[in-house]
Amino acid sequence: MRMVSLEGKLAAALAVAVVVAAALAACATIWFASPWVGAAAAVLALGIPALVFAHLLARPIAALIRALSGSVVAFRDGDFSFSIGAKRADEIGDLVSAHNELGRVLREERQHLFQRELLLDTVVQHTPTALVLVEQGGHVVYANLAARQLLNGGRPLNGERFEEIVATAPQPLARAIARDVDGLFSVPFEQEDETFHLSQRAFKLQGQPHRLYQIKRLTRELARQEVATWKKVIRVISHELNNSLAPIRSLSHSGRELARLGDMKRLTTVFDTVEERTRHLEGFIQGYARFAKLPLPRPQAVEWVPFLDALSRHYAFRLEGALPASPGFFDRVQVEQVLINLLKNAHESGGAADAVELGVVQHGREVRIEVADRGSGMSETVLANALLPFYSTKRSGSGLGLALAREIAEAHGGRVHLANRRDGGLVVTLVLPSEKT
Predict the structure, then answer these.
(1) Is 312 helix (H, G, I), strand (E, B) or coil?
(2) Which residue range or ranges hold the Histidine kinase domain (predicted)?
(3) Are residues 321 and 208 both part of a single domain?
(4) Is 208 helix (H, G, I), strand (E, B) or coil?
(5) DSSP-derived 3-state class of residue 394
(6) Distance (Å, rounded) from C-alpha 317 to C-alpha 319?
(7) What is each CA distance from 226 to 187, 220, 324, 349, 404, in whole angstroms?
C-alpha cells in the first residue's frame, strides 16, 4: 500500500526547508541585529537542506534508471530472468512492480514457446516426409531424420551444400529438383523401386530467401489406392455386366418358350431387346478399352472456325467472346472427343439448352477452352472427385468422361479445371499449350 507519493515527499522536504530557513533567519536577525545577516542565513538555511534532500531523492531514481537500462539490454538479448529488488511505496515502486511483472510474463511466454518449438521439432524430425531447408547461398540449414536417411546415409546435412548432396543422389531425384516444379519420380530404394513426390516452395525466413524441399514416399499409398481403384473397377464392371446379363438370361428363357409356342411376333421383340442390351454392353466395354489404350496425341495446327462448326453439329452451344487469331495446336480427334463429352454433360446438367456456352481464350502460351452451363453445379465432394476414373454420380454413368478429358489434356501437356459459377451452373476449363513445345 502506498504511504506517501514521490510528489508528497518533495513537497514535505521543501516545506521543512522553508520552515528551518525562516527560523534561522529570525534568529540571525535578532542575534546580529541586522536584516542582511538574517537574509544570508535564510538563503544558506534554505539552500543546503534543499541540496541534501534533492540528492537523497535523486539517488534511488538514478539507480532505478541504471537498473532499467540493464534490464532492457537483457530483454533484448532474450534474458528475461532480470528483475529489480527495490521495494518502495511510491510511483517508483509501482514502476518496479510493473517491470518485474513484465519479466515474469515474458519468462512464461518464452517457456511456452520453447515447449511448442520442442513439440514441433519432434513432429517434424519423426515425420516420414523428408524435409530440407536451404538458405540463399545454397547451404542446408535444416534437415530432418528422413532427409538424412534418404540423402546422406543418415549423416547430418546442416551446413552442407545442397547441390553437392543432390549431385550424389539418384539421377531421377536430381532431375526432379532441377525442373524446379512439383512432381513424381521413382528410384531404386532398399532393393525395390520407390515412388516419391517432390514439392518445392520458396519463402522468406527472418527476411532472407529460403527454399523448402519436401520428399514424400508414395509407394505404399499408391499401392493402396491402386487396390482400391481395382476394387471399384470390378464393382462397376460387375454392375454393368449384371444389368445386361440378367435380362438377357431372362429373355433367353422367354424366347425359348415363345419359339416352342410358335409366337414369332413376340419372339422378334425378345431378339430386339437382347440385341439392344448386347450393343449397350459392347459400348460399355469399348469405352473402358479406349480409356486404357489411349494413343499418344498427334498435335497439329487446327483452325478454330471449322473445328467449332463441326463440333456444333453434335451438341449446340453459344459461342462466348471472339476466337483467337492464331490457330490451336492439338490432336483434333482427341480434343473433339473431350469437348463432345463436356457439351453432352452440359446439356444433361439440368439447365436450359440455350444457356450452354463455349469460349476460347488465348492466354500467353496457353489456350483455354471453357464449356459452361446453368445447371445445378457440383458439391465440394463431387468437385474433388469428378476427375477420378470410375467416379460418377449418374446411375448409368461409367465415370470415364471427365477422367478421359483429364488424361487427354495431360497427354497434351495441359490440364482440366472444374468450378461452380457464381450465378449457378458449372464451368469446365480445358487448358492446352497454344504452340508446339
Answers:
(1) helix
(2) 236-436
(3) no
(4) strand
(5) coil
(6) 6
(7) 19, 10, 41, 30, 18
My answer on whether 255 and 320 are in the same domain is no
Do 429 and 311 lie in a common domain? yes
Report d(CA 208, CA 219) in Å as an integer: 35
> Is there a contact between 213 and 151 (Cβ–Cβ < 8 Å)?
no
Which pTM was predicted?
0.43
Write the DSSP symbol of residue 139: B
- Is 120 inside any structural domain? no
Backbone phi, psi, residue 428, to 5°: -110, 125
The residue written with cell numbers 431372362 in the block is 250
Give per-residue pLDDT as tens, 157-172: 889 999 888 888 888 8
pLDDT digits (tens, 9 = 90+) for 326-368: 999 999 988 998 899 899 989 988 888 889 999 999 988 899 9
Tell me which residue of 417, 407, 410 sits closest to 433, measured CA to CA: 410
Cell digits of residue 398 = 461409367
Q: Work out the angle between the directed axes of helices 35-76 and 6-32 (0-180°, nearest 10).
A: 160
d(CA 437, CA 433): 8
Locate cell 532474450: which residue? 78
Number of other CB atoms surrounding residue 191 within 10 Å: 5
Contacts 24+ apart (CB under 8 A), 312-315: 314/340, 314/343, 315/340, 315/343, 315/344, 315/346, 315/347, 315/356
For 263-372, strand residue ranges (E) read: 300-302, 318-320, 328-330, 357-363, 366-372
- State the SS3 of 186-237: EEEECCEEEEEEEEEEEEEECCEEEEEEEEEECHHHHHHHHHHHHHHHHHHH
Cβ contact 360:367 at 8 Å: yes
Whether residues 100 and 64 share a domain: the answer is yes
- Comparison of pLDDT for 45 and 216, the residue scoring more: 216
Longest dimension (CA), the chain: 163
Cell matching residue 29: 536577525
Which among 189, 217, 245 is the end of a domain? Answer: 217
What total number of domains does the chain contain? 4
C-alpha cell at 146: 528422413
Residues 6+ apart with CB under 8 A from 240: 281, 284, 398
Which residue is associated with the grid cell 459452361?
372
Residue 154 is part of which domain span?
127-217
